[in-house]
TrEMBL record:
Signal peptide range: 1-18
Protein name: Glucose-methanol-choline oxidoreductase N-terminal domain-containing protein
Taxonomy, superkingdom: Eukaryota
InterPro entries: FAD/NAD-bd_sf (IPR036188), GMC_OxRdtase (IPR012132), GMC_OxRdtase_N (IPR000172), GMC_OxRtase_C (IPR007867)
PROSITE patterns reported for this sequence: GMC_OXRED_1, GMC_OXRED_2
Pfam family, one: GMC_oxred_C
Domain Glucose-methanol-choline oxidoreductase N-terminal: 129-152, 305-319
Gene Ontology terms, MF aspect: flavin adenine dinucleotide binding; oxidoreductase activity, acting on CH-OH group of donors
Cited Gene3D superfamilies: FAD/NAD(P)-binding domain, Glucose Oxidase, domain 3
Cofactor requirements of the protein: FAD
Length: 620
């Protein structure tokens, strides 16, 4: 936090102090105005009733509110528990400073055997955005679509309309691809959409080494958001002119002058109002210390995210009746799937590959005034995607070698937990002080990199429960990481691929080697054996922040499904869920772009279902 404060001060004070440099003053000025201009306004006076209430203005909710308000005859209220983005959240290189602040919900998993053992209280931190734009304000901005087989799999399970062929147009609709060499592939990329996508303006020499290392191992350097996924790439990011492009910036700013869209910030939803016919007719929320109820004419749409949406369903009395009775919530509708099927991409962020050259993101070298000056000129390390410089989709021995369906993703970081000397990454991951001191501190601030392995299709599934009937209590989260040993086996293979990368010529040029101090708790196991890697992963387990699946979309004969293929809650009326929680199976990649796609498609589903009706206003 201190660094953040410093940077804010640097941004504001330096140009005034450095009077000699009038041109940089002008640049700062225009930067700050560029940031403030066009911000969404917090509506003070709300109507007693709207056509639609969207709960949660995150990746999905911002898209939905924007698209629904395109229909002039419809009024939409967007309720968001958080406030507006800040100048700091706009800076890609500072993303890690946003966690554990008041724009983060700061969830934690419950302690469970065999996971998160090197972390305080054996709990993994699960950050989620509590701000307009939601987790797209906290995220690392990687723009990734997943594998076409993911969506074809959803469709095969009876979710009509969700095959890759059917969802691809929605990815393209949002996209404003700014790299000409990518944009020219019109079958897969779009231009002119609300969401700006481009490669970061800055990268270290390690980025190139990563792609070259992949080629040495026999993989192709390709656009993994294109025709095939298997391969190595320089990541595409949701950034615009060197700054973060959250969904609030992308989708809500262009809609801010619409009279039919009201945005209520710092409005914490408590529950959905449900009548005896099981119709959702409004939302109860708290704003400015006052409890308010607002009614809805057409639909309530939950876009509160993979934790928030199932939590709100349960608080409203929709879920497993036994659980609801335990916490003293009257049952409105029995739907046992709510909060189940919790999936996440477990990852191993603790490994450190040391190098001899001063080329990585060692924080003391890039958090300084010249970097800030470069940043407002849209260049330099603060425009980088917070250290993520490469992405790869690879196949372990458990994947079908003949199919383009990799089971492992490697996220390449031009740094590691030691790069900031323990200032924030350690706390973000909730690492125990003793582990930090013994293992990481001796190499703090050294140059390093890491290839984070990620199980793309985890077989272990978790669940969440209410702690109590209090809407401010965080739910109990059971991640169940590595409960199915298959996930561990895939991860171990991923660790070995990382090791193989370090031995390539491309990485040997930098003197790369895996830091060989035995990890605390794993000292008895020989280094780099399967048993050692397993022990390491069970200790330093981390989320890749891709929680999904807790309000599963499924066919009408699937008892675990919460919503139908048009995202309507089964057995109810006037209630949909639109966010990461509807994914039946988490996609084989990062989740932001897929969630945006889900919201784009949902907006069309909603328009189709209401615009057919004859009782609509004339101007529609
Ligand atoms: C640290 C981090 C890094 C990530 N990195 C990447 C990445 O690089 N690439 C990528 O593709 N994905 C990444 N992700 C994941 C991706 O950002 C999420 O999957 C996506 O944003 C989820 O969208 P959502 O709409 O489901 O939920 P969210 O975006 O989380 O939105 C939910 C919204 O609902 C609001 N809300 C919740 N409860 C209530 C309530 N009771 N009342 C009112 N409002 C409420 C929240 O405040 C929030 O604004 C990352 C996520 C995090 C946290
Ligand atoms: C319905 O979904 C279940 C669970 O995904 C699946 O096993 C079943 O085959 C599906 N049925 C149809 C008709 O698609
Ligand atoms: C890197 O440094 C280590 C430790 O000082 C040394 O053993 C190694 O030879 C160096 N490698 C290269 C390629 O410079």
């Amino acid at each position: 936090m201190q660094t953040t404060v410093f940077l804010i001060i640097a941004v504001w004070i330096q140009p005034i102090v450095c009077t000699s440099s009038t041109s940089s003053f002008a640049i700062f000025n225009s930067y700050i105005h560029g940031h403030l201009d066009g911000r969404v306004e917090n509506t003070n006076n709300l109507l007693p009733e709207y056509d639609f209430i969207v709960v949660g203005g995150g990746s999905a909710g911002a898209v939905l509110a924007s698209r629904l308000s395109e229909i002039a005859g419809w009024t939409t209220l967007l309720l968001e528990a958080g406030g507006l983005e800040t100048i700091v959240s706009d800076i890609p290189g500072l993303a890690k400073f946003l966690q554990l602040t008041d724009i983060d919900w700061q969830y934690q998993t419950e302690p469970q055997p065999g996971q998160c053992l090197a972390l305080k209280d054996e709990r993994c931190n699960w950050p989620r955005g509590k701000v307009l734009g939601g987790s797209s304000v906290l995220n690392y901005m990687l723009y990734v679509r997943g594998n076409e087989r993911d969506y074809d799999g959803w469709a095969k399970a009876g979710n009509y309309g969700w095959s890759f062929k059917e969802v691809l147009p929605y990815f393209i609709k949002s996209e404003d691809q700014r790299n000409p060499y990518l944009a020219k592939n019109k079958k897969y990329h779009g231009t002119g959409g609300y969401l700006t996508v481009q490669e970061a303006p800055f990268k270290t020499p390690l980025a190139t080494a990563f792609v070259q290392a992949g080629v040495e191992l026999g993989y192709e350097n390709r656009d993994c958001n294109g025709e095939r996924q298997t391969g190595f790439m320089i990541p595409q990011g949701t950034i615009r002119d060197g700054s973060r492009c959250s969904t609030a910036k992308a989708f809500l700013r262009p809609a801010r002058n619409r009279k039919n869209l009201h945005v209520a910030l710092r409005a914490h939803a408590h529950r959905v109002l449900i009548d005896d016919q099981k119709r959702a007719y409004g939302v109860v929320f708290e704003r400015d210390g006052k409890i308010q109820r607002i009614r809805v004419r057409k639909e309530v749409i939950l876009s509160a995210g993979a934790i928030g949406s199932p939590q709100l369903m349960l608080l409203s009395g929709v879920g497993d009746p036994t659980h609801l009775q335990q916490v003293g919530i009257p049952v409105k509708h029995s739907l046992p799937g709510v909060g189940q099927n919790l999936q996440d991409h477990v990852s191993g962020r603790g490994m450190v590959y040391l190098i001899n050259e001063t080329v990585s993101y060692v924080e003391v070298r890039f958090l300084n005034f010249p970097s800030v000056l470069n940043y407002v000129r849209q260049s330099g390390p603060l425009t980088a995607l917070s250290g993520t410089e490469g992405l790869a989709w690879v196949k372990t021995k458990y994947a079908d070698p003949n199919d383009d369906y990799p089971d492992m993703q490697l996220q390449f970081i031009g740094g590691s937990p030691i790069s900031d000397g323990g200032v924030s990454l350690k706390n973000n991951d909730n690492v125990k002080d003793s582990v930090w001191k013994e293992y990481y501190e001796p190499i703090a601030y050294r140059d390093s990199w890491q290839p984070i392995p990620i199980v793309l299709r985890p077989r272990s599934k978790g669940y969440l429960l209410l702690r109590s009937s209090d809407p401010y209590d965080k739910p109990l989260i059971y991640a169940n990481y590595f409960k199915d040993q298959h996930d561990m086996k895939v991860m171990i293979e991923g660790m070995k691929i990382g090791l193989a990368l370090s031995k390539t010529e491309a990485f040997q040029r930098f003197g790369s080697r895996l830091y060989d101090k035995p990890f605390p708790g794993c000292e008895t196991l020989p280094l780099w054996t399967d048993e050692y890697f397993e022990c390491f992963l069970r200790h330093y387990s981390t989320t890749l922040y891709h929680q999904a699946g807790t309000c599963k979309m499924g066919n009408s004969s699937d008892p675990t499904a919460v919503v139908d293929p048009e995202l309507r809650v089964y057995g109810m009326q006037g209630l949909r869920v639109v966010d990461a929680s509807i994914m039946p199976d988490v996609v084989s990649g990062n989740t932001n772009a897929p969630v945006i796609m889900i919201a784009e498609k949902a907006a069309d589903l909603i328009k189709e279902s209401w615009l057919k009706r004859s009782d609509l206003p004339k101007d529609v």
